[in-house]
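Exercise 7. Given the components listed, write out the predicted structure of the assembled complex. Treat all entries as one system.
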Amino acid sequence: MAERPASRQGSKTRTRILEASQQLFNERGPADVTTAEIAAAVAINEGNLYYHFQRKEQIIEALFEEFESNLHRVAAAYLAYSDDPRRYAEYLAGWFNLMWEWRFLYRDGASIRRLSPSLRTRVKALSDTGHDQVRRAVNGMKSADLIRATPEEIERLVVNAWIIATYWIDYLRSRRGIARITREHIDWGASQVMSLFIPYLTPAGMTLLSMRST
Amino acid sequence: MAERPASRQGSKTRTRILEASQQLFNERGPADVTTAEIAAAVAINEGNLYYHFQRKEQIIEALFEEFESNLHRVAAAYLAYSDDPRRYAEYLAGWFNLMWEWRFLYRDGASIRRLSPSLRTRVKALSDTGHDQVRRAVNGMKSADLIRATPEEIERLVVNAWIIATYWIDYLRSRRGIARITREHIDWGASQVMSLFIPYLTPAGMTLLSMRST
DNA sequence: GTCTATAATGAGATAGAC
DNA sequence: GTCTATCTCATTATAGAC
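Answer.
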């Protein structure tokens, strides 16, 4: 849950605005956090905040861009594992970690669309990319003979895995009443996604899965 | 997609307010619909609207109550099927229909919590009931020897089925960019949920499933 | 029960001095 | 870059006549 390294560009104040916004948004959602609150959290004046971001939606867009690049970084790291079959579990874990750090993006989709309609197409594009990545991972598992499934079954699996993962945080919060999400909740979500694949595992896949849980 | 029968209690104006609100909320979400718009849609004055509902959140709460009773009605109808194994598919279909008629409740969870914090506990309670119903249905399928699964597998299935169903509408809208949701999209969602159970089907279960698809 | 005002609020945003 | 002061505006909500 460590906050990002020195990867935010621009002035120091701008960086602090983004960090404070991310935290406040994660706590209560962009619609429920006013520009005045953000300014107070950064200990600057509201007028100053509007020097750096002329509109509130520009803060959201800047945060979304950062999330986007983080997601691509996770996907790239997964590829770096080359042929090690553990990479699938690592990829899933990396994905869930990001969802936690940027949970307001997963939880407040409706109000984000309202505040920043321009993000609509980018959210969809990112989701398409995500589907592709999951599909590639599942096909990779098939090629490595970890699972056995028809193309139709794989497509169902991709969509189901994507939905479970994407809405897991919101599910815990709104349907389970879990306010403070911990590492265990994240792991639970990952294993919930994994459970989709269990019926399709080959003996080799089963061995790998039981190794991991030790 | 037919609007509900004469089941709304109270005055005629009150009923019309609820109907107009439901439609507007489904289109654009409660946070994006002003009381002025609702009054205009009903062709009454805004002051009059505030005679029937002193706060905007009371409209949301009244609509939620109606949704609640509809959901219980669907569950009761499913029980009326007694032992016919087709009831599981019918139950699923009834559930998806409700999710379509009340899609704003599924789509705008965050802004609804903001506008009406008092609904939080009731949403959670309703979701608990929903889990129970799904669990009972899955256990019923097991007793009828339609599926074979361990208790742990069943619990995974219940959670996954619930998440896929609950977030299906939002998934189509926000991640697939589907603006106008049709009957086909609803059926797609239902079959996506069904796909979770396919690996666990017994021969009897498979026969039933293939009969249904004709 | 319904209407015509109009008050009260609180948020996003800007101008211009320092 | 930062601040103070102010503006605009949408929205909820109320008072009181009909």
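Discussion: Chain A has eleven helices and no strands. Residues 34-36, 46-47, 50, 54-56 of chain A lie near DNA strand C (CB under 10 Å from a C1').
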